[in-house]
Amino acid sequence: MRATVIHAPHDIRVEEVPDPVIRRPTDAVVRVLRACICGSDLWPYRGESVVEPGSRIGHEFLGVVEETGSDVARFAVGDLVVAPFVWADGTCDFCHEGLPTSCPSGGDWGDGGTDGGQGEAVRVPFADGTLAALPADAASDERLLTALLALSDVMGTGHHAALGAGVRPGSTVAVVGDGAVGLCAVLAARRLGAGRIIALGRHQARTDLARTFGATDVVAERGEAAVEAVRELTRGQGAHAVVEAVGTEQSMRTALRITRGGGAIGYVGAPHGSGTAVDLRHMFDRNIALRGGLAPAGAYIPALLPDVLDGTLDPSPVFDLTVSLDDVADGYKAMDSRTALKVLIRM
Amino acid sequence: MRATVIHAPHDIRVEEVPDPVIRRPTDAVVRVLRACICGSDLWPYRGESVVEPGSRIGHEFLGVVEETGSDVARFAVGDLVVAPFVWADGTCDFCHEGLPTSCPSGGDWGDGGTDGGQGEAVRVPFADGTLAALPADAASDERLLTALLALSDVMGTGHHAALGAGVRPGSTVAVVGDGAVGLCAVLAARRLGAGRIIALGRHQARTDLARTFGATDVVAERGEAAVEAVRELTRGQGAHAVVEAVGTEQSMRTALRITRGGGAIGYVGAPHGSGTAVDLRHMFDRNIALRGGLAPAGAYIPALLPDVLDGTLDPSPVFDLTVSLDDVADGYKAMDSRTALKVLIRM
Q1: Which residue, A266, A292, A318, sits at the end of a domain?
Q2: Which value, in Å, is the radius of gyration of the alpha carbons in chain A?
Q3: Which residue, of B292, B310, B337, is where some domain finishes?
Q4: Smallest Cα–Cα separation from A154: which of A347, A335, A339?
Q5: Any idea where the Alcohol dehydrogenase-like N-terminal domain is (chains A, B) (predicted)?
């Protein structure tokens, strides 16, 4: 089959690789219908994180079960499924508690001889623990299929951020970051009943989308000016619930400064310098909590899926460019240059 | 009247100071019956924090209302009251939300021309917002009076730590720090229904007290050995709820390493280097939350007071040395040299 391989920074290729086969009785093979490119895929692409040359890449996909191992009980050939961005056994303490990202038997797509998500098919370890079933008729609804793909990562991550930030009905929420995750956090905050949602971002196309998603205010300033703008919108107090969806030192610093005393930061931007901005004394004096991390996206699918299916939750607009697998390198270029927000790969 | 004054590191004196008088209609004057010395009073004593020479000191006291301003409605002359470690107006958004430590009109004892708690009397700003009423007959019960004094700071701080750590019925809890706050966190964790409480500490008298307070296990090791010991006690996973009650780099590092994936650190040790130990990547990968800060002790009194009054919650044993006001300098020496855990000052 063909799959995406990264050889070096900016060197993304689609190559012929071995067809996935069932190796363990708990495996399934999924024929991929849709995959996508994540902001975190840009780290190896930009050389910001090291990868083994020739590594498979991609961790978000949706497709049809093509083959199942003898121990797979929840899925049959032909089932439409979505995979979250980690695989997990579904049986350990952590999986039972809704934290599959901490499953000691689990792993990332592409690790340990697994396939990456950006390819024609994927061997899925622990299929029963990893995959989520989707209704078969969704396969014929292009928009819905795109929205469902977001459950593999960005929508669950936005939801995780909103939960971490403690969004409740009526909350004043601020979202730092206008990438796909930040935008999904806006959606998640609205879904959780936020009274006011302040989106911080400089790219008008993205902040316009944030408004469509439920943002009541947009702050285009950065740094000190952004802090002042949020304070002005919140009677000088800041927001109770703040989402940090970037992971840089500046974004975390901004998040801290706009969080109200007694509030919380839901951080889902993988730390890329943000750790140095965690000013514990500032947090201590104000009782600001920091809660988040790698989103257990798979654990959130049961809660989010009904809303996606009935259309009340629609993250599909975060995908603003669609490429074929052959053109995946163009997709990376578009996301790297920020001409695309999030790239859908149609097989 | 006489009150405790700090002139320089290790220079604590009891001096004649002006008698407190009502300055604003919302003030009350409280004649102090009991005060105490806090671990945080040792910072200026040790020269670890800067104070103006001649500053008043002490922020924990309990006494009898001696005079009230014309706007004081909740208290009358003769009432027995306890004061939390900050004063607050009781009317702002933060006070209403249970976070008097963030009250913009509030302050610390000794600040802004107020009295310190370690003296014969104290002018209490915003008496209605600051003080908590105690039953009059408690004044004749020596043990109870001591237990009630703990509501001014340590017991509320221990409770805040346990809440921050997310202690729930059945939780496995680890408490880093065997000072008075750590011990009160053990009490608080037991009160919240913890299933297992692991106390980390090296001083046997203190860890013995921890056992009396409800600790099921004691880990006397430090650093890497402590981490290993806690992991062994928790099937290699760590504790769901971890209290960090010290504030140093080592204590925070230990707290992080013994927290289970998906767990939380309730930190109440005022940061004295602990910020540098906050490894955000470690937290991110494991979804470890950090929640705590300056305890809103006053807001917790309504919840904790009934349990102290009926004896089910008894922090009085953390006071292991009693001095008179004249001998307060001896009390500081005893706490500084760790020969005393917490010093009660009887007026």
Answers
A1: A292
A2: 20
A3: B292
A4: A335
A5: 25-127
| Residues of A with Cβ-Cβ distance to B285 under 8 angstroms | 101, 293-294
Q: Does an H or E element contain B196, and which?
A: strand B196-200
Do B147 and B168 lie in one domain? The reply is: no
Name which of A101, A287, A294 is nearest B101 (Cβ-Cβ): A287
Q: DSSP letter string over B134-183?
A: E-GGGGG-HHHHHHHHGGGTHHHHHHHHHHHTT--TT-EEEEE--SHHHH
Q: Are residues B220 and B233 in the same domain?
A: yes
Q: To which residue do tokens 């396939």 refer?
A: A115
Nearest to B291 among A97, A102, A289 (CB): A289
**Which pLDDT belongs to residue B313?**
98
Contact A294 B285 (CB under 8 A): yes
Domain match, B237 and B326 both: no
Query: Please, what are the averages of pLDDT over each run of 10 residues along chain A (347 residues)?
Result: 97 97 98 97 92 94 98 98 98 97 96 92 98 96 98 98 98 97 98 98 96 98 95 97 96 97 96 91 98 98 98 98 98 97 97
Regarding whether A314 and A200 lie in a shared domain, the answer is no
Q: Determine the distance from the C-alpha atom of residue A1 to the mean position of all C-alpha atoms in its chain, rounded to a whole number.
A: 26
User: How many domains, in total, are found in chain B?
Assistant: 2
Query: Which residue range is the domain that position A42 belongs to?
Result: 2-153+296-346
CB pairs under 8 A between A and B: 96
Q: Which residues of B touch A (CB under 8 A)?
A: 93-94, 97-99, 101-102, 164, 237, 261-262, 264, 267, 270-271, 274-275, 278-281, 283-294, 296
Secondary structure percentages of chain A, helix, strand, coil, to 5: 35, 25, 35
Contact A97 B262 (CB under 8 A): yes
* Whether B171 and B110 share a structural domain: no
One domain, residues A309 and A288 = no
Q: Is residue A173 located within the same domain as residue A220?
A: yes
Nearest Cβ partner for A289 among B271, B289, B294: B289
Query: Cα distance from A140 to chain B (closest Cα, Å)?
Result: 36
